Records
---
Amino acid sequence: MSATGATEFNWVPQAAAIAREAGARLREFFAQGVVAEYKGDADLVTVADRASEKLIRDRLAAAFPEHGIYGEEGTRDRIEGQFRWYVDPLDGTTNFAHGFPQFCVSLGLEERPKGLAPEEDGSLVAAVIYDPMRDELFVAERGRGAQLNGRPMRVSRVPELREALLATGFPSRKRHRNPNIHFYQEFTLRSHGVRRAGSAALDLAYVAAGRVDAYWEFNLNPWDTAAGVLLVEEAGGRVTNFSGGPFCLDSREILASNALFHRELLGFFSDMFAGRDLEPIPSPREFAERCELQLRGTGDL
Ligand code: IPD
Ligand code: CA
Ligand code: CA
């Protein structure tokens, strides 16, 4: 804290300026329209992803010459050092490529003490997520709280799943192996609803801002989560894996909440994985047959 009581961030101002500059480039590309290429069966990349990563890489190297950079589009600079930035230069590429204005730049800084094994996590110490379409800047530093556009940001106070608005996402690779549609269905029935907006980093930022009360996803990468996890924790929330163990950058799965009903969510994950208490859901065929009966005046939808 400064003499005036204001929080002083060390890494955030420079990282925020970089994220804003990259966000401005993304806004220009978005206005022009871009052509997408395929990285996988539904995994897209555009010229904007690459241009944004190059800009962020150059600016981070100039601002923090000793820091490592680990970017989605292939940057692996100085990653053996004490500090490492996880860079998602454009989170929400599918939205971006379709003209759907929900995407962001995500920069998360990890401090890795000497001697840490490559597979071990250090500590997330700074986070910047910038949504260029809404001009919203979400930031945090470890132990100093979280802010949205310069104002303190807290998770929601919703006490239970029944009253919660949730968020999730679905992977763009190996989609047929993913069970999340079952979780989507069950959580939809047990809450106020589940949003699938297409940017994992913004989903986490929205938990931190109290706009959604919990978020989960399978199959993520460190560049999707590093910044958002610190935002949620510094805003008073909780982040774990699906069993309640510590979240790890490489663990791929994430459950983030306002902390108040995290245990309830974990119990629900445990029931789901054990196949307990699943609500029956009509198959499309059963539904069509019921419609037919209703048309004949003998059934109820
Ligand atoms: C994707 C988004 C999406 C999530 C996918 C991610 P990208 O990141 O965060 O919300 O569901 O799993 O891969 O590819 O747009 O950077
Ligand atoms: Ca991403
Ligand atoms: Ca990306």
Note: Helices lie at 12-32, 47-63, 93-97, 180-190, 200-208, 222-234, 262-274, 284-295.
---
Amino acid sequence: AVGARDRLRIAIQKSGRLSEPARALLAACGLSWRESRDKLFCYGESLPVDLLLVRDDDIPGLLADGVCDYGIVGRNVLAEHAAERAREGSHVASREVRALGFGACRLAIAVPERWEWTGPGDLQGKRIATSYPGLLQQWLGEAGVDATVATLTGSVEIAPRLGQADAVCDLVSSGATLVANQLKPVETLLQTEAVLAGPVLPFGDARAELAALLLRRLEGVLKLKD
Ligand code: PRT
Ligand code: ZN
């Protein structure tokens, strides 16, 4: 077939919270690599499974374009991509294959500590800063709340103190960052952790067998961990 491939390509985060645990998990599945000089591409040695090291935000797009077959990425990033695609009316090209048990946190609405929170309706007419506009718009729509979404790529938690927003929608794990910014979490939009993302349709070439082998090994490794 045109474009038939006999190697699998997995995208993982180049540097960040998920990089080390993702590599360790794949290594525990028996994979090993010969690293390229620039370390953006790692050529699989023990099995024909290569790694592409990228920004986590690029992973859903690489899957959608078929550049990579699998990706290890936060459910939050995958869900944000899907929410944005749904708004554009385009269909989703990848799905969550398996939760991986690391990188857990939640996407939450947080407001200034002094706010006496009564529910999502409190956000009516307010301005909310976030790096997850797709998921926030979806949640606001379901809650029937009309609010302004301000998309920021970083330093979301400081926005209320700067007068840029009334509330934020951001990832929370320990909650220390919220406390440091005199904010409190009031609603959870999504519980998230690192997931294996993969294709919606099965492979029609040699990758099918390779993918089955990898998923079997992954199940074995994850079972030992619980
Ligand atoms: O460079 P690149 O774009 O690849 O990385 P990134 O900076 O976008 O992502 P990175 O490495 O910070 O996070 C990767 C993934 O880790 C996220 O998409 C989540 O799925 C997951 N994860 C788990 C987290 C956290 N925990 C977390 N605590 N991502 C971010 N945070 C932030 C949080 O927003 C807060 O600002 O860390 C800060 C500290 O959190 P507290 O609550 O413990 O204070
Ligand atoms: Zn990122």
Note: The radius of gyration is 20 Å.
